[in-house]
Amino acid sequence: MAFADWPSSDGQNMLLYPWLSDFRVNNEKFVEHGHRLAGVLIGMVSVALACAGWREGGRHRGWTLGILLAVIAQGGLGGARVLFDRGTLAMLHSITGACFFSFCLIFRLSLLDGWRDWMRQSDSRFSVNGFAFSLLAPLVVLAQYVLGGALRHLHILRTEHVVSAVFVTVVCVAAAWHLLTASHRLLRYCGIFVVAALSTQVLLGLGALATRFGAGALGYVAVSGSFEQAVVCSLHTVTGMFLFAATNCSALSVLRLRAAGRLTGLTVTQADLLRGGAA
């Protein structure tokens, strides 16, 4: 809320606003206008991507058009947050931003040179439990992201967010374990991504709690609006996006391999049923 207007900035055209002049004078306006310009850049890249996808044809058209529409919706939400000054809109803007990031990353994953080769590889070690935890992980991460947004923008549900973090950690660790112990290379890559994002997120979560609410045992007193609080809490939010994207990529990979019949450990054959009945 450094600016009260949108899409203009203090009544000036967004692209003509003297952004750099605020660097020393008004840090809040410098950061906020930088955020707006970043949104414009993402929009321009999305338009170019949609044009390239349209030329390619096939499934690329749907993916790239979806990305462009998502960018437009995200920009509209950001503008509504400014015009109506509602914490709920700020929270929704953050949540949809995380979903948009996952959407883009999943699309990029499907374009990797090795994607088709991975879809032809099989894995007999990946179990039903691994399948279940891989699908559950992005759902609990999204729920945790919502709770975090409520804490950051509405200043509520602090205890629920902390308690839920423990549950999310357990689910993600279980999912990562099954992914890392799989024989399929793509699943192992996904497991590494989940572990890296989760480890960083837990550390940043502890830092966010300390910088926002203080750490009496360490003699640290939180200062509202301090630089370290802004940096740590923002990094915590961004890493949450990476964790959400990591679990979404894992779930997509598992679903695609399952649909292709490549996760043979999940297949229950008639012989298996007969053996079970005999036992």
TrEMBL record:
Keywords: Cell membrane, Disulfide bond, Heme biosynthesis, Iron, Membrane, Metal-binding, Oxidoreductase, Transmembrane, Transmembrane helix. It is a multi-pass membrane protein. One of its GO terms (molecular function) is metal ion binding. It is found in: Membrane. It comes from Planctomyces bekefii. Its main location: membrane. Pathway: Porphyrin-containing compound metabolism. GO terms for cellular component: membrane. The keyword Methyltransferase does not apply. GO terms for biological process: heme A biosynthetic process. This is Cytochrome oxidase assembly protein. The chain crosses the membrane at residues 37-55, 62-84, 90-111, 131-150, 162-180, 192-215, 235-255. The keyword Cell membrane applies.
